[in-house]
Specification:
Layout lengths: L3 E5 L4 E4 L5 H9 L3 E3 L4 E4 L5 H8 L3 E5 L5 E2 L9 E2 L40 H13 L4 H18 L8 H14 L4 H18 L23 H10 L3 H13 L3 H4 L7 E2 L4 E4 L8 E4 L2 H13 L18 H15 L8 H13 L4 H8 L4 H5 L15 H5 L1
Parallel strand pairs: 1-5
Antiparallel strand pairs: 1-2, 2-4, 3-4, 6-7, 8-9, 9-10
Helix pairs in contact: 3-4, 4-6, 5-6, 7-11, 8-10, 8-12
Amino acid sequence: MDVIYLFKNSVSVQTPFYCYDPELFRALVRGGGFWDKYNRAFTFNHGINAEILSKNIFVPCVLVEETSGSLKVSNFFEHSLNVAPNITPNNNENIQKPVNHSVKNCGSPFDFPASMPLPEKFSEYWRAKLEAELRSRKYSMRTRRAYIYYNRLICRALQKSPEEIHPDDITQFLACMEKTREYSASSMNLAISAIKFFFKYILKKDDINEHHRPHQDGRLPVILSKEEIVKILCMEKNPKHRLLLMLVYSSGLRVSEVVTLKREHIDLSRKVIYVRQGKGRKDRSTLLSEKAAIFLKEYYNFFDTEKWLFPGQPLSHHLSIRSAQHIFDKALRRTGIHKKISIHSLRHAFATHLLESGTDIRYIQTLLGHANVRTTERYTHVARRSALNIKSPLDSVF
């Protein structure tokens, strides 16, 4: 049987909720509860009577006071609840020990990872040490943020400080990441790298062995046709926005690369775009199309591009990645194309259309900035077979 625990302190009485039950929520409101969205908990006045509340909502309630002893609440991994001996229910004495410390059993203890009303266990001291170590090795800002995020996440999820975490805890944490299906295989691999780095270089522990890394999901990209690309570009009337989409497709740029372009990165005479500090902090060059070059010359006459080719707000900053994605989404909606795609799909289309036109895959690899040609080879699975001179045997039968 499920039990609601009411935690009483000197100010109020609260009970946390990790999933949504509309019927029960309405009953708790009628019982005098106030929903605290930030802390994801119902708050009651100090004089709440657990026995009366139990009868009103038809769910057993247990009142736990600060002085009643220790209480181990179920954590990230749905462990059973251990209640101190002097805590007894206010009614229904034959209540079984609950699986979850709040509301009805609804699968996972909380919505992982977005809203976790759990105290932080990864202190500022450890965060500063980790960031200093990462900076000393010249890791990119994006990698630094990811490593800090995953180390903070495991500590908060386990409710343990870094010193208290053991190898088995890490295995459980990764298993729960997979169970909730909120993270892709690449995200799980990044989490493993982040945790290993912290334990090896910050805690100086050698007992964290290499975990089996999950295989990448074998998903193929959704490809836009050339006709669909034309539709998207024609639907975008804002010249700044149209140029941004045009460059992503015509040069195969990542969205993080196109928003950080500067005028000095573009050589109009040689029709080349220089990508500075792309993924993996690597420079590369890619092609600039004739039509994009003509559009760029007109763009320079009307827009201030002293610092950024695509300035944001304020003008001293470049356009954000989120804004670029929003630009693409709006243009896509106007076309009526019903495909689950993002602005990155323009880069996929660039590679696929080059492959279909007979461009050598090694050149495409260089233009995209792929470290391994196997990454580029996936476009052979989505290229039109007719363009690659591959015919179905059915066509030769008749």
